[in-house]
Amino acid sequence: MTTTAPPRPAAPAGPPSPPSLGRRVAARLLRWWRQLTAMRTALMLLFLLALAAIPGSLLPQRSLSQSKVTEYFRDHPSLAPVLDRLYLFDVFGSPWFSAVYLLLFISLIGCIVPRAVEYARSVVAAPPPAPRHLRRLPEHTELRTTLDGDAALDVVEEELRVRRFRVVRRTRAHGPELSAEKGHLKEAGNLLFHVSLLAILVALAGGKMFGYEGSIVLTEGDGFCNSFQNYDTYSAGPLVQGSDLGDLCVDLRSFQATYEDDLTAASFSADIDYGPAGSATRDTTISVNHPLRTDGDRVYVTGHGFSPCFTVTLPDGTEPATDECRPFLPTETRTMSSEGVLKLPDLGPGQTDQLAVAGFFAPTGVVQGGLLTSIDPRPLSPQVAVQVFRGYLGLDSGIPQSVYQIDQTQVERGRLVQVGSANLTAGESFTLDDGTRVTFTGVREFAAIQVSHDPGQVYVLIASIGIMIGSLAMLLLSRERVFARAGPGAGGAGTVLSIGSLTRGSGETGPRFQALTDDLQDALTTRAADGARRTTTPATSPDGAEHAEPEAPPR
User: Fold this and answer.
1) Are 107 and 134 members of one domain?
2) Cβ count within 10 A of residue 546
3) 520: domain range?
4) Which of these, 452, 410, 501, 426, lies nearest to 163 by C-alpha position?
5) Those residues with Cβ within 8 angstroms of residue 427's Cβ, 6 or more apart along the chain or in another chain
């Protein structure tokens, strides 16, 4: 007798093998990408970018005014180095600001591309079929009519097309039905908003890459040409070469400043001549909010001050400086008290023969307690308190120094010695111990001129308009779908129209749906009455006699 052993039970299945390292990395990267391209992430990055720009408006920036940054370091010697290590004086060029900017750029692209594809598909696709249970929609109702189902749907279709709906008719198991939708412009406005926001980022980045900006202080009667060597401060994008600057020369003929009764500044305006180098010039007036725009460049007046003028006469009668004017920087904007220096490095063969005339200028000067001060920003009684230094100025030492101050290091080392001081009004002079005479000849006004070239500015304006239009479309328009299905009435008499509406993006769906159903009921009643009238009205013969319609012959 042969026996057969029962089959051995299958070994229990072991735990599933873990995914490979590559699959785990890919899954994690995909999850991060989805988080980065989510709309909430884009909004958070946009808010973070606005938050990161706040220090740039509160603290002086090197790209705008190096002198103000230097002044901040002087006034806050312990805090300024800490802020500098955090790039708070170069906010818009800092690594952390660039990182947020780049992440926002990537996030917007990741948001826009899928939504644009989905929007294109929805525009091309027909409205979806009506849901089986129209009563479950937020807005629904039933209308009864004596018309048959197709005729009733004809009335609904006509009424919806008047309201600019796209309409599709279908016949399904539940009976003839109609689907209609409108409001794609709402989603188009949403896309326009985000595309315009992305365009602003691109335009701003392009303006920084291909733009430049230079500032210079011009005294009345002076001029300059658009070359980076001529500017006091100059910044340009990494793709800008020196030869890319526009051909423009500007001469400052005069400057006018007006003040309110409380002596606060009311307006600044500068009369200038401008044009290409070596060509005929044109004259115009620029002010704070009315710059000169020419060939893609904009010329602004950003500030003003005074340039005291001096004549220095040596003992032998030569004049190394004749009516030489130097801008003095305002130390108090309310009275325009200013400080500056006139440096004369070429008075003799030796380094110790150099001269510096440092001064404090008061537009309307008054001496109080032996000190000169100003009581009015207008040049009603200009005076200057000067200190004359002789010795080595240190201009050729290789160490940069301010053109508005003497190098205090040379004074501390004894290489620059004060040899005289005086308070002077216009036309007065005083003589040094060696017979050198310093004369205060008068004062001229100066204007701070800024030349900017930003090729992205027009695109920023266009994108800003796009953002406004897109926002209005999102706020004012709504996406709406209307479904209608025709079914037999009670006892097979007439037709029952089941109508439902689904609206996104609007809180006033009830009144609008009620108005639609009221108009549909009126149109159905009118169409039914017209059909009944055509049925009951007898035919009229050519001679005016009325005859009954002949009966159809039996088949």
Assistant:
1) no
2) 9
3) 127-182+478-534
4) 501
5) 439, 440, 441, 442
Is residue 499 a contact partner of residue 486, using CB atoms and an 8 Å limit? no
DSSP bridge pairs for 270: 255, 286
Q: From CA 362, how far away is CA 368, in angstroms rounded?
A: 12
pLDDT (tens digit, 9 = 90+) per residue, 53-78? Answer: 898 888 888 877 776 888 888 888 89
> In this structure, is residue 161 part of a structural domain?
yes
Residue 170 belongs to domain with CATH number = 3.30.160.110
- Tens digit of pLDDT for each residue in 344-368? 988 777 677 889 999 999 999 998 8
DSSP 205-231: HHHHHH-EEEEEEEETT-EEES-GGG-
Half-sphere exposure of 79 (CA within 13 A, CB side): 9
Element (DSSP H or E) covering residue 304: strand 297-313
403 shares a domain with 278: yes
Q: Of 377, 324, 318, whose CA–CA distance to 353 is shortest?
A: 318
In which region does residue 87 sit, left (phi positive, over 0), alpha (psi from -120 to 50) or beta (all else)?
left
Q: Could you read off the pLDDT of 456-499 as tens digits, one per residue?
A: 989 999 999 999 999 999 888 888 999 999 988 777 778 889 99
Q: How far apart are CA 36 and CA 102, in angstroms?
A: 12
Q: Are 140 and 500 in contact (CB under 8 A)?
A: yes
Same domain, yes or no, for 388 and 402?
A: yes
Task: Please count the structural domains in the chain.
Answer: 3
